[in-house]
Structures are given as structure tokens and as C-alpha cells.
Amino acid sequence: MNKEKVLNLAKLARIEIGDEEAESLSHEFDAILGYVGEVRNVTNIGQSMFNESMLHNVMREDSQPHESGRYTKKILEQAPAREGEYIKVKKIL
Amino acid sequence: MSDISKLSVKSTRAALKKKEFSARELTQTSIDAIKRKNTEINAFLEVFDDALEQADGADRRIANGENLPLLGIPIAIKDNILVEGKSTTAGSKILEGFIAPYDSTAVKKLKEAGAIILGRTNMDEFAMGSSTENSTYGVTRNPHDLSRVPGGSSGGSAAAVAANLALAALGSDTGGSIRQPAAFCGVVGFKPTYGRVSRSGLIAYASSLDQIGPFAKTVEDVEIIYDVLRGKDELDSTTISEDTYPIQKKFSRTIGIPRSFVESEGVSKEVRENFSQALNKFESLGYTVEDVDLPHLNYSLSAYYIIVTAEASSNLARFDGVKYGLHKDGRDVIEDYFKTRGEGFGKEVRRRIILGTYVLSSGYYDEYYESALKMKRLISKELNEVFGEIDLILTPTTPTTAFKLGEKTSDPLSMYLADIFTVPANIAGLPSISLPSGLDGILPLGIELTAGLGREDNLFIAGKEFLGE
Fold first, then answer.
1. How many CB atoms lie within 10 A of CB A47?
2. Pick from B335, B348, B333, B341: which is nearest to B94 by CA?
3. Is A76 in the B-facing interface, judged by CB distances under 8 Å?
4. Which of B305, B327, B358 sits opposite A9 (nearest CB)?
5. Cβ contacts of residue B405 below 8 Å, gap of 6+?
6. Whether the predicted pLDDT of A42 surpasses 90
7. Could you give the ipTM of this predicted complex?
8. Cβ A30 vs Cβ A2: under 8 Å
9. Looking at the predicted structure, is the pLDDT value of residue B324 above 90?
């Protein structure tokens, strides 16, 4: 890990960080990854373990969960910028 | 009434019914205690301005003869669980001023059971931390020793109960965030089976691990609150039903000890001694104790920190300065994101999101994230097999007693190691409880009991027997 790599990851994560933080994060990441990387050493786990899992997807109908507009006002009130019933953002294109 | 130190939820309900005191007097006592002690402890970020009004409502219902499990009981709420119309920040600047548009299911159920929603408690930002030092709103201090941390991330809730500012509190536990601060503060902290309590309205951190649970002074009290909170919720598709985990083994008072894990490097002498005393106590209570072999349990912490950072990087993508919370202006939309997230997230949150981005990135996904998921499955399988033979696993809750403020803030890895005994229950979705098990000088110690999936009942039996309830 190095400073440039961390700056690039921060860019992917849409977080502005300074050079100094990137430098110190690169050292911390080396220590953390050095520790957690031990999971890579265990090779005796096959795909079959995933298939045994009790987990399954829970689906519901793509229908109207509540009457339209019930929360609109409350949710719009939380937006940093709005215009009428719309959340306002800067021009994208 | 002068203070609530001698009261439990259970005894308070009885006293309220007998009109020994009113819910208003009780709530006022909590508010007065918060006024006296919160400046130094910083357990509460806010006491809700309608708390006394809620208490009056409860008193009217008590006068009418209504009987609900939490009627008139003031409860503190961790600042990542939504309470309609109230500010909720998850300890973060990025949610400064955010007002919850709806109640979380947990709070809705507390209200339906008659509880008074007293206020919101401090926490590590987005529940990322083990000391409550990562809050934008200042550190919380351990009521037993103000130079020490209360644990985290639900440190405010644990400290509120320990300092007798509230009879009970809600927390959330992703890797020990209820149990570890409960141990550091000398109270009972309980994480139910994954899926037992709805997370609708809990600000998500790592969704495959997060679970809401209560803090209180007794096992009976956490059980009362748990009975209110539990149940399937159509707003959280991961909630389980009563028959999801059919009972496979009758409770027979058998405890398993993962010996090499308990004796890991970094476990203090005081904790080891206290742990063997706890073991002796269980034996004297008629429990059979045996060593259990869980060869991959030692990898839990590693798998955990890969999974949480990965899920956090995904979950926290929603904080963009557009829909709610903080907004920092840049030249264009993308720069708005960079500035809002750079300034809105604290250091530990930035660290975990960026690390999570790394373990999910092309080229490293298989190496880290996929390996961690496989490890999670393997550890779960080993634990589930062991629970066919024994009822409970006993470990210390934490490797040391509460550490000094600032002691671990410059070394994230040493902070992460504070969670070594609590993460396996989250990795495998198991119910787990931390019980106060004595003092080292003035500092509380805790032991942790973990049961098989859906076997909260075993934890309550053993917990009550251990504490002599």
C-alpha cells in the first residue's frame, strides 16, 4: 500500500482526503491488511459450503407499500436544497 | 425519589402500579441526574423535550388501570435508531440536523409497550469504534473512572445505565457494540439472534451483522425489553419467525470453553483470573464445563473487519449531501460529493470506507472479501455443530478492563483487537449476552455467554442463575 493507491481508493469512494492522511492511512492499511489477510491462508473451504447455507432471498411484490405521498413532505424537508416538490442538484451534463 | 440506582425495570413497573411514585417523578429523577452528571460523562446527546409530557401520558394510562410491559419506563436510545420527529445523527457531522421522518420498528414497539423515550445517547460515529471516542459530539467517559473509555460503539447507552441516568437503553451490536461497553461499564448487555429484532429505522453499518438489543442492570430486565422488541417485521426482510430455528436440544446446563481462544495473547491477568472464577461459579451452580474445539474461531476478527469495511463502504454511499444531512458545495455535483463526504465523515469512518473500497476492488475481491465470506461460513458451521453438544459457550467479554481515553486512538489495529471475543457471535448470527462478573479495583469485568441460533432462552436461564436473580 502507498499514498497514491490510497488517494485513488478515496477517489473511488468519493471522499476528499489530503496527502498527509493518505500517507498515514497507507501505513495503517499495511498493518490492518497484514493482520486480516490471514483469512487468505485457509484454502480448505469449497464452494459447497455456500450451497449448504440456510440463507435465502426474501422477495415481495413490487407494489405500492403505502398511499402515495404519505412521507413526501417529511422526506423533502430533510433535503439540503429543493425546488417545490423536487430535490435540487447541480446540472449533471 | 432521590435516584434510580436501586430500581430495575421490573421493580419499577410494580412500584408504578402501586402508585409508590409516578412516571413523571421517575422521569424527572432521570432528567435531574442527567443534568448533574452528563457534563462530565457525556452519555446523552439530547434529552427529548417531550419526555415529561410522555410521562404524564403514561401516568394517565396507569391511573386507568392499563398494564403494559414498559408502561412509564424511561428508556434511552442510541443515536443511530430513529425516533420520529427527533434529531438522529449516528454521532456524525454528516447527519447534523437530520430529523427522523419515521419511527424505527424498535422504537415503535417500545412506544406501543408504554415506554417513555427519554433521549438519545452518544456513540462512535456510525457505530464504528470500540470506545465512543469517535463521536463528532465529544467522547463519553466511563462512569466508574472518568479517565477511561466506556467501550463502544454504544458507549453512551452503557454509561447511561451504569451512571443511573436511565433504567435501560437500546444499543446496536455489529461486532460487540452492546456487549463490550456493557462489560466496561458493569451492566448487562444483550445481542439477540441475527434477525430477531427488526432493523427498520436503524442506520445501517454492516447489514449482514447488525442487530439491535437492550442494556439494563439485570438479565430479567433485558428479557422484558427483548420480549417487546422481538418479532418478524415486513419492513425488515431479514427478520426471522418463531419457527426459523426449531429447538434441537433440551437445555442441560453444559458449557463449552474454546480454551486456546480464551487464552489468546493480549488477555490480561485480571481477566483470566476473573474468567476462571466465573467458571467455578457455573460449576458450583451445577453446570458441566468442557473444552470445545473450534479450530477457525481465531479467524473471526479478521473475517469480521473485512466484511464490516466492505459493507460499510456500500451502505454509507447513500450519504451524498443531496437527499439529507450535511451539504458542502463544490464546483459540480461530483465535487459536492467529495467535499460533503470528506468533511462530513470523521477519520475512522473515512478509514473504514476506504479500506472497504479496497477489499471489494477488482483484483482484491477474491483475496479478501470472498475469503472472509468463506471463513464466516466455516466458523458458523463449526459453532452450529458445537451447539448440538453443548448449550452455551463462555468467554470473557473483553481481553482487558476499560482502557484509558486516548490509549488506542493512534493505533487502529489495537483498537480492533478489543472486539476479539465479541465478533464470533455476529459472524455466526448467534445470541450473546455480557454479564457483570466482578471488579478489578474500581473497574468492572464482564463474561460473555453465547448460545445457539434462536436460543436466547438458554442465555436468560444461565444469566439469571449466574447473577443470582
1. 7
2. B341
3. no
4. B358
5. B131, B133, B139, B141, B147, B148, B149
6. no
7. 0.93
8. no
9. yes
Residues in contact with B3: Cβ distance below 8 Å, sequence separation at least 6, in sequence order: B29, B33, B164
Q: Determine the pLDDT at residue A66.
A: 84
pLDDT at A91: 87
Question: Which residue carries 487464552 as its cell?
Answer: B263
Residues facing residue B75 across a β-bridge: B117, B168
pLDDT score at A43:
63
Residue B347: exposure state from Cβ atoms within 10 A (0-12, 13-18, ≥19):
middle
Side chain identity at residue A73, one-letter code? K
The question of whether B153 is a catalytic residue gets the answer yes
Measuring CA to CA, which residue among B149, B364, B365, B400 is closest to residue B265?
A: B400
Domains of chain B, by residue range, sit at: 9-229
Write out pLDDT tens, residues B231-258: 999 999 999 999 999 998 999 999 999 9
How far apart (Å, rounded) are the C-alpha atoms in residues A93 and B321? 19
Which chain A residues touch B334 with a CB distance below 8 Å? 14
Which of the 8 DSSP states describes residue B204? Answer: P
- Return the ∠ at Cα A32 (arms to B365 and B259), rounded to 5°: 100
Residues contacting residue B441 through CB under 8 Å, at least 6 positions apart? none
The confidence score (pLDDT) of residue B81 equals 98
Per-window interface: A 19-38 vs B, CB < 8 A: 21, 25, 28-29, 31-33, 35-38
CATH class of the region B9-229: alpha beta
Tens of pLDDT, residue by residue over B427-454, are 999 999 999 999 999 999 999 999 999 9
Q: What is the mean pLDDT of residues B197-224?
A: 98
For residue B198, the one-letter residue type is S
Grid coordinates representing B450 are 453465547
What kind and span of H or E run contains B393? strand B392-396
Region for residue A79 given its phi and psi (left: phi exceeds 0; alpha: psi -120 to 50; beta: otherwise): beta
* Active-site residue, B37 included: no
What pLDDT is stored for residue A54 in this prediction? 64
Q: Which residues of A touch B345 (CB under 8 A)?
A: 15
Active-site residue, from B104, B172, B177, B432 = B177
- Going from the C-alpha of A93 to that of each of A89, B333, B338, the distances in angstroms are 12, 10, 18
Q: Return the ∠ at Cα B138 (arms to B135 and B143), rounded to 5°.
A: 105
**Distance of alpha carbon B25 from alpha carbon B2, whole angstroms:** 10
pLDDT of residue B413: 86
Check A14 against B326: CB less than 8 A apart: no
User: What's the grid cell of residue A30?
Assistant: 499495511
